[in-house]
User: Fold this.
Amino acid sequence: MTDDRALYAYSSARENVLEHLFVGKLLQTLWCKGVHDVEVLRSEVDDCGYDLVIECQGVLRHVQLKSSHREGKASRQTINSKISGKSGGCVVWMLFDAKTLELGPFRWLEGQPSQLGNKIGRHAKANSKGIKTSRPNTRVVTKKAFSRIADMDGLVHQLFGDIKSPKRLSA
Assistant:
């Protein structure tokens, strides 16, 4: 199977790999900045608007992850609108290399209701009558609504602000 076909045939597995890579790279970046006390929680049910909850230096973020490969033509994402009601709610759209799964650049959207717009998303598959019904808790958000962030360092700054290196532990 070609790499391009695998991106779609194994999309659930790919999403899990990308989420793990994201968390790993995020924690690596924070570690290198001297931050070792970070909490990362995963959502077991995908209906509350977020995939991860991350707390770092007193900043709490509910993060909805989206992804597409860098050469893809995606011009919009369907966002769970419940993210706008969560503390520190935001959407991180990860672009990745289709062959290596290397992450970056990223796109960023704060979860404010006014930024999500009014266009309601639809189910990808039609029902038995051939109708793609609406998904009322979703909004279609275009790429231009997202800010571009070049790398994980920039994303860490966007998520948590200026990172202050904590006091060193004495031996």
